[in-house]
C-alpha cells in the first residue's frame, strides 16, 4: 500500500521580486512526524500556508490519498482534514476551552439555535482523556497557560478529525518539562492515526520526536532524510551552507574594571539578594529555567521593576534606576525577550525604529535632520548587515533576525555602555543566531561595550559568555568561568539547586 498521505509536486510560489518556493516536492506519510527546518525566508512557512489555504500556489499539484486536490481557502483545508497550530494561537480569549474547541461546529438541540453545552462538554472530556491531559475547561482561554492553550488547539484538531496537523514552532515558549509533555502527546497523536508536520528552529528537538526531516534553503528543498540517517551537523550545514555547530564566540578576558556591580538587590516576590559584577569588555551570561527570575532581573536592571532594597553601581558610582529613562541616562540598553511587543513599533519604518531612542540628537529647532538620520541608519544597516532593500519599509516585514539587528542598532546610537540581551535569539533561525553572536563578539572587540545575556538556552550561553551566573527561584545560586563546564552540568545544577555529581 502507498504510504503517502500527502504529496506535493513542483510547488512554486512567487511574490513580487522573490521566488518563495521553487519547484518543491514534499510528501507526508501516514502516521508520521515529519520535521521541516530552514532559516527565515527559506520557504517552509510559505509551503505550510499553501497547505492551509492561506496562500495559493502558482504552479504545482497537491495530492491527498492519491487524489488531486485544490486548496483555495482555510475552510477547504479543514474540510480536507488539514489543520495548523500557528505560533500565535487562533483562539478567542473570552471564550472557554469548550466554546473554542466547538466554535463553528456546535452541537445543537432539537430546538433551533440552542446549543447543547452538555454534549460539547462530554465530548471535550473524552478528547482530553484520550490525550491524557487535564485542564480547566470552564474558564476563559486568556487565563490558561501557553501550553494549555496549545492543548486546546490540539483538541480542536482532534474534534475536527484532522488527518494532518501542522505545528509551527510549538516548543518556542515552553519549559523543558512542557516540551516533554508535548512530545509525548505528538507521539500519541501519531499512534492514533494522525500525521504531523513539525516546523521548528530548535534543530536538536527533531531527533527526539521526528521520523523524517526536510531541509529548505532559499526557496528550494535541499534534502529529505530519515532521522536515523542524518545528524545535527549535516542538518545545520544543509540549512546554512556552512559549518556552525562547534564555533564559539567568547574569548578569555583579563579585565577587572567593573562596569556594573549589584549588591543585595531585592524585588518583592521576584528577586532575592542578587549580587553580581560585570567587567568592561565582557559578555556575561545569566541562565536558568523558565521561572528562575532571569528575565525579571533583566527588567529590573532596566528600571521596569521596582527595587525594594539593594544597591546598583555603574563605573563605581552608586545610581538609582527607577525607570527605563534612568537606565538609558546611565548608558544601559535593553533588548527585551518579546522584541515585537516591547522592542519595536511594528508599523513604523526600519529607520524610525533605529533612531527612536536617540531622536533628541537628531532634532534641531523642533525639526528632525532627516539627512543625518538616513546616513546614521545606512551606516548601521551596513555594519550589522540588516537585510532590507529599503530603510523606509515597515519593520514588521523584516525577518526575526533582522528585527533583532535593528533593535541592537537602536541602542548603539544611544552610545550605551551596557547592553542587556533577554533571550536574544528566541524565534530566530540557526544562521541568524550565529550572526547575532558574531555581532556581539565584534561589539565587544571594537567598542567600549559590555554585554549581559539572559538566556534559557545553555548551548547559547556556553557559546558566547566569559562568565556564567546560574539562577533558580529568584536567586543567583552559582558563578562559573566558561571553562570545562558542560550543558549537562548546567542543567543539573539549575534543576536541583544541588552540587554537580
* Broad structural category: alpha/beta
* Low-confidence residue ranges: none
> What fraction, in percent, of the residue positions are helical?
25-40%
Number of strand elements = 22
Radius of gyration (CA) equals: 25 Å
Looking across the biggest beta sheet, what order are the strands in? 6-7-8-3-9-10
What's the end-to-end separation, in Å? 52 Å
Report the portion of residues in β strands.
25-35%
**Which overall shape is indicated by the principal axes computed on the Cα atoms?**
globular
Taking the sheet with the most strands, its summary is: 6 strands, mixed
Number of helices: 17
| Mean pLDDT over all positions | 86
What characteristics describe this protein?
single chain, alpha/beta, 501 residues, 33% helix, 6-stranded mixed sheet, 17 helices
In short:
This protein is an alpha/beta fold. It contains 17 helices and 22 strands. The mean pLDDT is 86.
What would you note in describing this structure?
This protein is an alpha/beta fold and 501 residues long. The protein is built from 17 helices and 22 strands. The strands form five sheets. The protein has a six-stranded mixed beta sheet, with helices on both faces. Strand 14 (309-314) and strand 15 form a beta hairpin. The radius of gyration is 25 Å and the shape is globular.
Give the topology, please:
Elements lengths: L3 E12 L2 E12 L3 E5 L6 H8 L7 E6 L2 E3 L4 H6 L2 E4 L11 H5 L15 H15 L14 H14 L4 E5 L7 H16 L3 E5 L6 H4 L2 E6 L2 E7 L5 H9 L17 E10 L3 E9 L3 E5 L6 H8 L7 E6 L2 E3 L4 H6 L2 E4 L3 H5 L6 H6 L7 E2 L2 E2 L1 H14 L16 H13 L5 E5 L7 H17 L3 E6 L2 H7 L2 E6 L2 E7 L5 H10 L5
Parallel strand pairs: 3-8, 3-9, 6-7, 7-8, 13-20, 13-21, 16-19, 19-20
Antiparallel strand pairs: 1-2, 1-4, 4-5, 9-10, 11-12, 11-14, 14-15, 17-18, 21-22
Helix pairs in contact: 14-15
Amino acid at each position: 500500500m502507498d504510504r503517502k498521505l500527502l504529496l506535493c509536486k513542483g510547488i512554486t510560489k512567487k511574490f513580487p521580486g522573490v521566488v518563495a518556493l521553487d519547484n518543491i516536492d514534499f510528501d507526508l506519510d501516514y502516521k508520521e512526524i515529519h520535521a521541516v527546518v530552514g532559516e527565515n525566508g527559506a520557504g517552509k512557512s510559505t509551503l505550510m500556508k499553501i497547505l492551509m489555504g492561506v496562500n495559493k500556489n502558482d504552479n504545482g499539484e497537491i495530492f491527498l490519498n492519491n487524489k488531486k486536490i485544490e486548496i483555495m481557502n482555510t475552510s477547504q483545508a479543514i474540510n480536507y482534514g488539514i489543520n495548523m497550530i500557528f505560533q500565535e494561537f487562533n483562539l478567542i480569549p473570552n471564550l472557554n476551552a469548550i466554546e473554542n474547541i466547538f466554535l463553528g461546529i456546535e452541537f445543537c438541540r432539537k430546538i433551533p439555535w440552542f446549543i447543547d453545552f452538555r454534549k460539547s462538554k462530554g465530548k471535550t472530556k473524552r478528547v482530553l482523556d484520550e490525550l491524557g491531559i487535564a485542564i480547566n475547561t470552564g474558564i476563559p482561554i486568556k487565563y490558561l497557560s501557553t501550553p494549555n492553550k496549545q492543548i486546546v488547539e490540539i483538541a480542536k484538531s482532534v474534534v475536527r478529525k484532522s488527518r494532518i496537523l501542522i505545528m509551527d514552532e510549538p516548543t518556542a515558549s515552553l519549559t523543558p518539562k512542557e516540551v516533554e509533555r508535548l512530545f509525548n502527546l505528538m507521539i500519541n497523536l501519531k499512534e492514533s492515526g494522525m500525521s504531523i508536520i513539525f516546523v521548528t528552529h530548535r534543530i536538536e528537538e527533531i531527533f527526539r520526536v521526528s521520523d523524517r526531516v526536510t531541509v529548505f534553503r532559499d526557496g528550494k528543498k535541499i534534502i529529505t532524510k530519515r532521522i536515523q540517517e542524518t545528524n545535527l551537523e549535516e542538518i545545520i550545514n544543509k540549512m546554512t551552507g556552512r559549518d556552525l555547530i562547534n564555533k564559539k564566540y567568547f574569548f578569555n578576558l583579563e579585565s577587572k574594571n567593573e562596569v556594573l556591580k549589584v549588591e543585595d538587590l531585592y524585588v518583592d516576590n521576584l528577586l532575592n539578594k542578587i549580587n553580581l559584577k560585570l567587567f568592561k569588555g565582557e559578555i556575561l551570561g545569566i541562565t536558568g529555567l523558565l521561572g528562575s527570575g532571569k528575565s525579571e532581573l533583566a527588567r529590573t536592571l532596566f528600571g521596569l521593576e521596582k527595587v525594594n532594597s539593594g544597591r546598583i553601581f555603574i563605573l563605581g558610582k552608586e545610581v538609582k534606576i527607577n525607570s527605563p529613562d534612568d537606565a538609558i541616562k546611565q548608558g544601559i540598553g535593553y533588548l527585551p525577550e518579546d522584541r515585537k511587543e516591547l522592542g519595536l513599533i511594528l508599523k513604523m519604518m526600519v529607520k524610525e525604529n533605529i533612531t527612536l531612542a536617540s531622536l533628541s540628537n537628531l532634532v534641531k529647532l523642533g525639526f528632525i535632520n532627516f539627512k543625518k538620520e538616513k546616513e546614521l541608519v545606512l551606516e548601521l544597516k551596513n555594519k550589522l548587515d540588516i537585510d532590507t532593500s529599503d530603510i523606509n519599509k515597515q519593520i514588521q516585514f523584516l525577518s526575526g533576525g533582522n528585527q533583532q539587528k535593528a533593535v541592537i542598532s537602536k541602542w548603539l546610537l544611544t552610545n550605551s555602555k551596557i547592553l542587556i540581551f533577554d533571550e536574544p535569539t528566541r524565534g530566530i533561525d540557526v544562521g541568524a543566531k550565529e550572526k547575532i553572536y558574531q555581532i556581539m563578539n565584534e561589539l565587544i572587540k571594537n567598542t567600549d561595550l559590555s554585554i549581559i545575556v539572559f538566556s534559557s538556552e545553555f548551548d547559547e550561553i556556553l557559546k558566547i559568555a566569559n562568565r556564567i551566573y546560574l539562577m533558580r527561584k529568584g536567586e543567583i545560586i552559582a558563578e562559573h568561568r566558561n571553562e570545562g563546564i558542560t550543558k549537562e552540568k548546567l542543567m543539573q545544577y539549575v534543576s536541583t539547586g544541588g552540587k554537580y555529581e
